[in-house]
Design brief:
The complex is a heterodimer. Chain A is mostly beta strands. Helices cover 0% and strands 56% of the residues of chain A. In chain A, strands 2, 4, 5, 6, 9, 10 and 11 form a seven-stranded mixed beta sheet that branches. In chain A, strands 1-3-8-7 form a four-stranded antiparallel beta sheet, with no helix packed on it. Chain B is mainly beta. In chain B, the strands form three sheets. In chain B, strands 2, 5, 6, 10, 11 and 12 form a six-stranded mixed beta sheet that branches. A four-stranded antiparallel beta sheet of chain B has the order 3-9-8-7, with no helix packed on it. A two-stranded antiparallel sheet of chain B has the order 1-4. Chain B starts with a strand and ends with a strand. The chains are: A mainly beta, B mainly beta. The interface between A and B is medium-sized, with 28 and 31 residues.
């Protein structure tokens, strides 16, 4: 299984809502990533988990709260978002090992709209 | 300075023709990897091809090949025999071997929007 799945595919939420994005992989990867991508722009790294511990936080606002309950799952909890947070949110996973070759496998993304 | 530069915001190619998408990179790390990803309008990032900095030969994967010129720090993607389904955004990316960590950040270029016309 070389697939990363993400749910939901689309999400519309108000600025006062609390919602969560989910990501799952069964490739035995121990590194998982959250990216934010605006239209016609490259993905921007938000968070990296390694062995279920947060390794990188790219100064993301606290209204985004990541969680890695186990090695296969990655969540992104959303609260009090702003309209400018509307974007495609991509999850990715990779093996956590040294070396330049470390392909990241991406999920299909969640398209988030904040009203 | 930008790590990855893609200078072509958009490219057009006729079906069955070959097209080259440009990518230059900037790094002082002797060990690095270069990736190309395809992103259709559906949003998923699809891995296409990889080139390691120590690889002697250019990488090839089916209709995709990577023209790797190390001295020029360029890693252009060549798509042969273009198909309508190749219409998508293409991103060049680089990973540097971080000797202090097993997690290497993936640096993306701004992307090139490829349109294949019949």
């Amino acid at each position: 299984d070389t697939e990363v799945t993400q749910t939901p595919k689309h999400l519309v939420m108000g600025m006062t809502n609390k919602k969560s994005l989910k990501c799952e992989q069964h490739m035995g990867h121990r590194a998982m990533y959250w990216y934010k991508q605006k239209a016609k722009k490259p993905p921007e790294l938000m968070f990296v988990y390694s062995y279920e511990k947060l390794s990188i936080n790219e100064s993301v606002p606290s209204r985004f709260s990541p969680e890695c309950p186990n090695s296969s799952l990655l969540n992104l909890h959303l609260h009090a978002l702003q309209p400018e947070d509307s974007a495609l949110y991509l999850c990715a996973s990779s093996q956590d090992r040294a070396g330049a070759y470390n392909e990241q496998f991406f999920g299909p993304g969640t398209r988030l709209t904040v009203l | 300075a930008q790590k990855i530069t893609q200078t072509q915001p958009g490219m057009f190619v006729q079906e069955k023709e070959a097209v080259t998408l440009d990518c230059t990179y900037d790094t002082s790390d002797p060990s690095y990897g270069l990736f190309w990803y395809k992103q259709p309008s559906s949003g998923e990032m699809i891995f296409l091809i990889y080139q390691g900095s120590y690889d002697q030969q250019n990488a090839t994967e089916g209709r995709y090949s990577l023209n790797f010129q190390k001295a020029r720090k360029s890693a252009n993607l060549v798509i042969s025999a273009s198909q309508l389904g190749d219409s998508a955004m293409y991103f060049c990316a680089m990973r540097e071997e971080d000797r202090g960590s097993t997690l290497g950040r993936l640096y993306f270029g701004r992307g090139t929007q490829l349109t294949v016309w019949p």
